Automatic annotation (TrEMBL), chain A:
<dbReference type="GO" id="GO:0098796">
    <property type="term" value="C:membrane protein complex"/>
</dbReference>
<dbReference type="InterPro" id="IPR015854">
    <property type="entry name" value="ABC_transpr_LolD-like"/>
</dbReference>
<feature type="domain" description="ABC transporter">
    <location>
        <begin position="8"/>
        <end position="234"/>
    </location>
</feature>
<keyword id="KW-0472">Membrane</keyword>
<keyword id="KW-0997">Cell inner membrane</keyword>
<dbReference type="GO" id="GO:0005524">
    <property type="term" value="F:ATP binding"/>
</dbReference>
<dbReference type="InterPro" id="IPR017911">
    <property type="entry name" value="MacB-like_ATP-bd"/>
</dbReference>
<keyword id="KW-0547">Nucleotide-binding</keyword>
<dbReference type="InterPro" id="IPR017871">
    <property type="entry name" value="ABC_transporter-like_CS"/>
</dbReference>
Automatic annotation (TrEMBL), chain B:
<keyword id="KW-0472">Membrane</keyword>
<feature type="domain" description="MacB-like periplasmic core">
    <location>
        <begin position="20"/>
        <end position="241"/>
    </location>
</feature>
<keyword id="KW-1133">Transmembrane helix</keyword>
<dbReference type="InterPro" id="IPR003838">
    <property type="entry name" value="ABC3_permease_C"/>
</dbReference>
<feature type="domain" description="ABC3 transporter permease C-terminal">
    <location>
        <begin position="282"/>
        <end position="395"/>
    </location>
</feature>
<keyword id="KW-1003">Cell membrane</keyword>
<dbReference type="InterPro" id="IPR025857">
    <property type="entry name" value="MacB_PCD"/>
</dbReference>
<feature type="transmembrane region" description="Helical">
    <location>
        <begin position="324"/>
        <end position="353"/>
    </location>
</feature>
<dbReference type="Pfam" id="PF12704">
    <property type="entry name" value="MacB_PCD"/>
</dbReference>
Length: 235, 402
């Protein structure tokens, strides 16, 4: 299942805000690696550094110390433009608050990453429709976010994340705004994408039953990895 | 990609119609003012130039100098007479036409109609010097001119007033106390640069005018038309030399006559008009600058409002330049839209003004293109800073923005 080398590799990663005595270490020497095709849940209380780690995994942020390897590259040393390219080519994002563009149809939202890739309009539309079908949103393509339920909006967001066929899906509390039934639907969808397409999923959550969908759980505490366990009974 | 961005920008403009309109207003007013000013200005210049052409080509006019009111005149006043005319006719080497003339305002009557017309007595060369052609009939002949026959040529205003659509040829009109036979009608010359209707005129042989209208051997004006390709200033110098001789003015004494170069006057008027136009245009240009600042202001608001959107776009792989171009195009679309509306309003204003002021409507494609280019440039220049600010946002911070 796993490739010859890990997809993501943290080697003693530090993230420090501020300087001198006022400095805060959001991450204090974090090391772990995630292989292709894994489904990993990241847990921990607020302030534990899990969101910071998540931002670095998603190439949105850079470590102040240590090494963040992504696809064998030293992603933490890349400039803004190169990191934007990495995000566009290999990473999809799903957020707690969906983060869809308002007054823009579901299909247009899903097309957005393709626009930045320079995919021609006709092909874009076709790929967007396909992605929306994969998340079970046929017939809703021309609805705006305001016309969709929370669960449906999150599906649009997932379609937007997978339309570029990324290697990695970064999900930040994807079920945080949903009720239990919707949460399980979304988690079933993520699990299916992981199983069927071999999509690597890294997900931050603070709900134990949501984390239970993953193969593995990394727990953060005070900027350190407190535990890193396989969820044997999952799936 | 670019088309995509333009569509996005248009959508964002439509989303805030009122705000977009108010932002546009600055550019609209600025461009409208510039276009109206320059169009009216070039119309005025054209009008002045055509007025000058109406006076006659390369026209120089001699009048007797008048004493000052204060009485401190340093020359001996003397009327123009036949000797001056003969001197100019014989002495000028590069004149196309020399004509003595006298004129006054006289009541002209035909049937129940009457008007106070400008009545001129002149030689045949008058029509050459003033570049004034016939519309109907004929001019008076040499023998009619010599003999002082009571024939006359009338202007368009007089013709319309007296005869309407009828045939004026051979009709008798009363000029002052004299009865006069109409033999021809002059072409229309319109209003002069000094606001006088040049077509409200009756022209007759000078001899007829002197004998029958004023009863004196009077010459008020000598019209001289220089040949083409000859500098009017050279002709003017020559004329002054000849006139000083015929009028026996001692060396060192002041001229008791006055030679005016109508071309020079015309050029001076045209350049004054152009300067005025330029200045007004520059003032209008300042309002364009103000409009640009308005665009910058609204784009800053727009970038702040859409911080989260920028964050989303950056997260899913937009590069800095994508965001930069997006907001730059939006600012440019805004100001270009304002520019186009401004051009329409400016042209409408200039059109109305040209009707009201009776000047030609002279829209210049170059000025319009310049206005389009300039308004787009303003959008880009004033949109750049806000767009750069948006593009440089940290995606994490932008995503957290409420």
């Amino acid at each position: 299942m796993s490739a010859d080398r890990p997809l993501i590799r943290f080697d003693g990663v530090w993230k420090t805000y501020g300087r001198g005595e006022a400095s805060v270490h959001a991450l204090a020497g974090v090391s772990f690696s995630i292989d292709r095709g894994e489904f990993v849940a990241i847990m921990g209380p607020s302030g534990s550094g899990k969101s910071t780690a998540m931002n670095i995994v998603g190439c949105l942020d850079m470590p102040t110390g240590g090494r963040h390897g992504f696809l064998g590259a030293d992603a933490g040393r890349l400039d803004r433009g190169r990191r934007a390219t990495l995000r566009n080519r290999y990473i999809g994002f799903v957020f707690q608050g969906y983060n869809l563009l308002a007054r823009t149809t579901a299909a247009e939202n899903v097309e957005l990453p393709l626009i930045y890739r320079g995919v021609p309009a006709s092909e874009r539309r076709q790929l967007a429709m396909q992605a929306l079908a994969e998340v079970g949103l046929n017939g809703r393509e021309h609805h705006t976010p305001a016309e969709l339920s929370g669960g449906q909006q999150q599906r649009v967001a997932i379609a937007r994340a997978i339309v570029t066929r990324p290697m990695l899906l970064v999900a930040d509390e994807p079920t945080g705004n949903l009720d239990t039934a919707r949460s399980h639907e979304i988690m079933d969808l993520l699990t299916r994408l992981n199983r069927e397409f071999g999509l690597t999923v890294v997900m931050v959550t603070h709900e134990q039953d949501v984390a239970g969908y993953a193969d593995r759980t990394i727990r953060f505490l005070d900027g350190h990895v407190a535990s890193d366990t396989l969820n044997a009974e999952a799936a | 990609m670019l088309w995509e961005t333009v569509r996005l920008a248009l959508r964002s403009v439509r989303r805030n119609v009122l705000r977009s309109f108010l932002t546009l207003l600055g550019i609209v007013i600025g461009v409208a003012a510039v276009i109206a000013m320059l169009t009216i200005g070039s119309g005025t210049t054209e009008k002045v130039k055509s007025d000058i052409a109406q006076l006659g080509s390369n026209l120089l006019v001699v009048r007797a100098a008048r004493p000052d009111r204060s009485g401190s005149t340093s020359f001996t006043p003397r009327r123009l007479d036949e000797k001056d005319v003969a001197g100019l006719v014989g002495g000028l080497t590069s004149a196309r036409a020399v004509s003595a003339a006298a004129q006054s305002t006289v009541r002209v009557v035909f049937g129940a109609q009457n008007t106070a017309a400008d009545v001129t007595g002149a030689d045949l060369d008058y029509f050459v010097a003033r570049d004034w052609g016939l519309a109907e009939g004929r001019l008076f002949t040499e023998s009619e001119a010599r003999g002082g026959t009571n024939v006359c040529v009338i202007g368009q205003t007089v013709r319309t007033l007296f005869f309407g659509a009828g045939d004026p040829d051979g009709q008798s009109i009363r000029v002052g106390k004299m009865s006069c036979r109409v033999i021809g009608v002059l072409e229309s010359k319109g209003t002069s640069g000094f606001g006088q209707d040049q077509d409200n005129t009756v022209v007759m042989p000078l001899t007829t005018y002197q004998r029958r209208i004023v009863g004196r051997r009077n010459i008020d004006t000598i019209y001289v038309s220089a040949m083409d390709g000859v500098a009017t200033s050279d002709v003017q110098e020559e004329m002054e030399t000849i006139l000083r001789e015929t009028r026996r003015i001692a060396p060192g004494a002041d001229d008791n006559f006055d030679v005016r170069d109508m071309t020079q006057i015309a050029d001076a008027m045209a350049s004054a008009t152009a300067t005025m136009t330029g200045m007004l245009g520059a003032v209008a240009g300042v309002s364009l600058l103000v409009g640009g600042i308005g665009i910058m202001n609204i784009m800053l608001v727009s970038v702040t409002e859409r911080t989260r959107e920028i964050g989303i776009r950056l997260a899913i792989g937009a590069h800095e330049r994508h965001i930069l171009v997006q907001f730059l195009v939006e600012a440019t679309v805004l100001s270009l839209l304002g520019g186009l509306i401004g051009i329409a309003i400016g042209l409408a204003l200039a059109g109305a003004a040209s009707l009201a002021l009776a000047i030609p409507f002279a829209p210049s494609p170059a000025v319009i293109l310049l206005a389009v280019g300039f308004s787009a440039l303003i959008g880009m220049v004033f949109g750049f800073f806000p767009a750069l600010r948006g593009a440089r946002l940290d995606p994490i911070v932008a995503l957290r923005h409420e």
